[in-house]
């Protein structure tokens, strides 16, 4: 597969499943296929994509204000998410809908942020999946701090699989340029923290191609901080799974951080508000669309006789059901109470803020009166 | 010529780029894309990648490199993509950009403009609707200005670029698309406020996105029998106290309107100055209609959270109840 | 027991570390060295490197990691070495620390304390004498407090650590070494101001380093026949408006004293509230004696630049001239 | 020479002058001794050290509020400074007194900042030596921006030695952990800017040993960003000179940035206000004091018969003269005018600030009156 050409040459791109769907050997990555459920992976890839396309449709219908599509990045997200343990903590950006899905976060709750009914939408502790963070790079330091807590809780290197905990922080290629991301690398490396940085290099930061940020592969950034980085084919769900599993195990056992660069592509525009035709060629996008991560696994399943027509039919049915749920669930998302911002700014509301709330209530009530049909 | 504020800013920057080859634009997505609001649309095509620079993703880098460029003789115009993303640059802005002239006893001047689309009301997500002006207005060494009309956008951006002082240039994003007449008429100085609606009974003081709201409220108040004067501050640092105070000395009543949170907002400084300079003239305390002391809410709540005509009118009523 | 503020803070933190094993200190040079002001002296020795953490050199990292630690159930107390070095952490403080409770509708609370030695008057170099309180007081979601005595230092630091809200804890570094009596006496709530000197004719409102200056000025004013009441604000966000207003309603005159620059400083918010809530009681406008609207000057100029007794007295005279 | 041991092993330490003062071959660094003036280097090493020790004395006498000593770092600074061209621009931290001296900045003007008479003290454009920057890391981004200007001025890669310009940014080992420093690396690498980052790894950031920041040699940081880093013996003036000359030439010719790690040691406390005995052993300091960069060059000069007694006598005389100048000059530094902050906050003073100045003048005047002898 044609790699992202960086001026300073390329990092080996580790791959376990070739674009035509056949398995490949890799000198670094190994995956015992007995330990994975390719059908479950495929199902989640399909559901993730459906979640995404349905959200786009809802945005077009005016039900959402905005949606950041993950189209093309399903394998990276589903592969990484499938090797998380319950106790692991995830710090996503705003595009990890597939990880959220695999983590068991109700997909409907992902919509509130983009519908404007909430700034969050779920309890981060319910599924150990943090709220989306919109400030590029900021979450990487939260992951570092959380990992510092894990270390202090002796929840690392104990050998107890139910206890040892890893932190998985997601970031984009553009995020590698933010100072805070690099500080996170400094801290994670110096303290050998149980954190894995999973960078989906989708080759674009809105309109900025990867070369705007760097002339070398993203995976190499880690070497400057003293920990290991690996570049995997981000459209190869097996490679993403294997690399993440290894990195998480290393982290849980006290081996320190890893940077994973999953080389993939943002097939859609940055968000539904963006117009990618202004800065990149249809040919490029076309080229990458042909490296569809789903088709790849579909081919594998068919070739291996793992997925029969019933299986694929079942997946489609689940997909339709999900779409149905999303359409209904989105419209059913509760309107936020005007009290909400006042209630959740502090643990207990200061007197002057309470006074502001009273005035606000009075005002909102008066509006409702005046808007009431005469 | 009728132009949107976006086009007026674009023309103003084009004008500056043509007039002075040391002027240079730098920011995320401002080149090929023309900026997420298209404010710099077409400028990279016409002035090249060296003068309209698509930067790496880092606000500290944008402002820090602008300081170095300015030391080399350039006049950089930075774009911060949204109000909520200026904070990674705050260390460079507050500890360096604002202080280097003072540190160097005037030997180094930094003609750097930092453009920031600000304010809410566009139904966006977190960090895309904030009003950070107080942080900068409280920082000595920075000029802080904001435009309310395409005409001011067109003239003020050029004045800001021409200024030898670092200038935070706040653009009221929800007014980006409203059209207004733009001429080459003589412009007031960058640091002067303007009476945009004469009145006799009360003074509404607004800036940026709330000027239009205040004007509409003034018309509504007229109906209720109150003649409101509306002042567009334009400059938040320095503040044109004189224009404000002389108006309030006439009307005896003042009401400040801004989107930023109430406490320690620009309205506080205005109230402090007015109660001081117009002490014997005030018929009622200076009132403030602002955002509340909470983070910016989810967009479904923003209409009621933001200062709006109704809240200005009820505050006006309160003012006259004294 | 007579203790310096440094020792009182040290005892307060020791107390907190003993009482709750989730409490943890993190900052530059706070361990082996005990902090550049020795505020954490001996704590690493007694509580270990995991609970008194010598961090890498990065303020964003200190606050960002504190947020993650808090999410894991810890109660981190961050030290920023000097006021002027908090800015690299401002992005984490304003966009994350202050907003995460609101973002999560209360699901996530962040009991993080950020200790900052602040203010001038110690003959130091640039960035070591600043007063950044306004930036934080204007940020909804943060509590901002400051102590003026060893007793308050001892009690307030423990209250701040016990608070479930992120708290900016400002320490008036030029009062670090003055001794005061410290007891286990019941303390007022963290967010309440305190009348530290009763008076009848004018109210001096101060906080942190200027409380002592205001008290001395009050004694001098007494000699000139003016009985000044002095209020130590203690909390800058939220503001204890009630204590301030009820005092001014009695005295009819108010004067705010702080080191931060005048414009958009805490004095502005106090003036705005007082002129509003005590409108009919004011005999004179609220006056402000503060740092000027310039960057902090070289130390040879700081004595005259800072609010001092003489400037408070001449402002007092002005107040009585109304 | 015993190197700084980092957990992840060591970078080769490039050296051209051994501790005993004999020249050494290096596989990477080469220096044609015909192109350097060892006597001039020695003179500047001595004067730099004298400047430093004299400033410490002035601090002890209460003439300065504070002084950050460079003792032990003379070779790193003098070596780097000696290969700068007039048109090159330097961005120092607060400890580059030796670079300032070599650059021709009047050493007396270095004292004002620490005496409290000014926040600066010299015109950065006079000698293309920026003011000291006290905020760790901040100056690295200014260097990057200045280099962007150099590039746009076609003052790079033209082949004209009087035109091609490089930027030299100094930083400490602790500064490598600040986000802004790493952003500077991102920008310099992506845009191949003519900037050299000269990191004096003096192994301490106040009380934080290097291991607090990183487990690998500082020079390796550059590899994570896609440019070259080199670790040189920071107490070897020849090695520092050779590495910096090569890096500056590379930058001037358009070859992009370099990170130089000069491994040295901060022999004194962080500043005169610091107490190093609280966090490091006398033995460690002792050990490094024995690797004195001056003694090394002195031995070389003597062995090579380059420095006769007259020469050393002359150097001592100059050193005494400098000390004399500093003692007198420090006390003669003008007291700042109270107007200064008001005058230099803006290009032209706003009306309300002018009003504040008037009040301030009146106040200061009244004070002078009241303080006048009755
Ligand atoms: C600090 C900050 N600056 C700017 C932005 C605006 N912004 C939103 S997404 C984005 C690009 C991010 O690119 P990348 O990290 O590659 O993630 P991707 O969107 O490709 O998933 C930018 C610049 C932001 N959210 N935060
Ligand atoms: C942003 C910032 N944070 C903290 C400080 C306080 N401080 C001054 S010097 C210093 C250590 C710097 O160490 P290093 O970069 O190795 O330089 P050195 O002092 O060793 O020359 C610190 C933490 C500062 N000046 N700036
Ligand atoms: Mg990307
Ligand atoms: Mg150091």
Automatic annotation (TrEMBL), chains A, D:
Cofactor: thiamine diphosphate
Keyword Nucleotide-binding belongs to the record: no
Keywords recorded for this protein, A-Z: Oxidoreductase, Thiamine pyrophosphate
Catalysed reactions listed for this entry: N(6)-[(R)-lipoyl]-L-lysyl-[protein] + 3-methyl-2-oxobutanoate + H(+) = N(6)-[(R)-S(8)-2-methylpropanoyldihydrolipoyl]-L-lysyl-[protein] + CO2
Documented EC number(s): 1.2.4.4
Domain Dehydrogenase E1 component per the UniProt entry, residue ranges: 45-318
Function: The branched-chain alpha-keto dehydrogenase complex catalyzes the overall conversion of alpha-keto acids to acyl-CoA and CO(2). It contains multiple copies of three enzymatic components: branched-chain alpha-keto acid decarboxylase (E1), lipoamide acyltransferase (E2) and lipoamide dehydrogenase (E3).
UniProt record similarity statement: Belongs to the BCKDHA family.
PANTHER family linked to this entry: 2-OXOISOVALERATE DEHYDROGENASE SUBUNIT ALPHA, MITOCHONDRIAL (PTHR43380)
Protein name per its UniProtKB record: 2-oxoisovalerate dehydrogenase subunit alpha
Organism name: Haloechinothrix salitolerans
């Amino acid at each position: 597969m044609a790699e992202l050409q960086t001026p300073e040459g390329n990092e080996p791109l580790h791959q376990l499943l070739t674009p035509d769907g056949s398995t490949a050997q890799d000198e670094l990555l190994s995956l015992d296929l007995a330990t994975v459920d390719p059908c479950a992976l495929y199902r989640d890839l399909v559901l993730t994509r459906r979640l995404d396309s349905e959200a786009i449709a809802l945005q077009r219908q005016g039900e959402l204000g905005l949606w950041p599509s993950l189209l093309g990045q399903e394998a990276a997200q589903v592969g990484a998410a499938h090797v998380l343990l319950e106790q692991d903590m995830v710090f996503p950006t705003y595009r990890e809908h597939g990880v959220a899905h695999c983590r068991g976060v109700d997909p409907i709750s992902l919509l509130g942020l983009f519908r404007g009914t909430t700034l969050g939408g779920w309890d981060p502790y319910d599924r150990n999946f943090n709220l989306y963070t919109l400030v590029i790079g900021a979450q990487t330091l939260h992951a570092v701090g959380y990992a510092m807590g894990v270390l202090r809780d002796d929840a690392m290197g104990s050998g107890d699989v139910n206890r040892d905990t890893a932190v998985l922080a997601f970031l984009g290629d553009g995020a590698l340029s933010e100072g805070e991301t690099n500080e996170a690398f400094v801290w994670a490396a110096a303290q050998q923290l149980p954190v894995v940085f999973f960078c989906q290099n989708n080759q674009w930061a809105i309109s900025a191609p990867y070369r705007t940020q760097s002339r070398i592969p993203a995976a190499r950034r880690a070497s400057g901080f003293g920990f290991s980085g690996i570049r995997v084919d981000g459209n190869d769900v097996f490679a993403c799974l294997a690399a993440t599993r290894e990195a998480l195990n290393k982290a849980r056992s006290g081996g320190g951080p890893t940077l994973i660069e999953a080389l993939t592509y943002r097939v859609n525009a940055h968000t539904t508000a963006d117009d990618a035709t202004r800065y990149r060629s249809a040919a490029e996008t076309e080229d990458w669309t042909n490296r569809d991560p789903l088709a790849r696994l579909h081919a594998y399943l068919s070739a291996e006789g793992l997925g029969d027509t019933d299986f694929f039919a079942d997946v489609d049915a689940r997909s339709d059901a999900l779409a149905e749920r999303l359409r209904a669930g989105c419209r059913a998302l509760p309107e936020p109470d005007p009290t909400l911002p006042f209630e959740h700014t502090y643990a207990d509301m200061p007197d002057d803020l309470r006074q502001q709330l009273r005035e606000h209530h009075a005002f909102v009530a008066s509006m409702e009166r005046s808007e009431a049909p005469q | 010529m009728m132009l949107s504020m976006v086009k007026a800013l674009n023309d103003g920057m084009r004008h500056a780029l043509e007039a002075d080859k040391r002027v240079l634009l730098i920011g995320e997505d401002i080149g090929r894309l023309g900026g997420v609001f298209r404010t710099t649309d077409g400028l990279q095509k016409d002035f090249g990648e060296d003068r309209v620079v698509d930067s790496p993703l880092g606000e500290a880098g944008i402002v820090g490199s602008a300081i170095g460029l300015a030391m080399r003789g350039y006049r950089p115009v930075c774009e911060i993509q949204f109000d909520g993303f200026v904070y990674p640059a705050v260390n460079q802005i507050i500890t360096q950009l604002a202080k280097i002239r003072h540190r160097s006893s005037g030997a180094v001047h930094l003609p750097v403009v930092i453009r920031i689309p600000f304010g809410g009301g566009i139904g966006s997500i977190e960090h895309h609707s904030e009003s950070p002006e107080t942080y900068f207005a409280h920082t000595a060494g920075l000029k802080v200005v904001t435009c309310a009309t395409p005409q001011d956008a067109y003239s003020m951006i050029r004045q800001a670029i021409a200024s030898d002082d670092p200038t935070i240039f706040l653009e009221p994003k929800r007014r980006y698309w409203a059209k207004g007449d733009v001429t080459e008429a003589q412009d007031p100085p960058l640091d002067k406020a303007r009476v945009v609606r004469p009145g006799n009974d009360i003074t509404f003081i607004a800036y940026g996105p709330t000027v239009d709201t205040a004007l509409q409220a003034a018309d509504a108040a007229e109906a209720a029998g109150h003649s409101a004067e509306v002042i567009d501050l334009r400059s938040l640092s320095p503040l044109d106290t004189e224009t404000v105070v002389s108006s309030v000395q006439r009307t005896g009543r003042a009401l400040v309107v801004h989107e930023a949170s109430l406490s320690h907002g620009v309205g506080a400084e205005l109230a402090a100055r007015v109660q001081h300079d117009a002490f014997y003239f005030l018929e009622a305390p200076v009132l403030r209609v602002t955002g509340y002391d909470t983070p910016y809410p989810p967009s479904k709540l923003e209409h009621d959270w933001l200062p709006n005509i109704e809240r200005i009118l009820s505050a006006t009523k309160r003012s006259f109840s004294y």
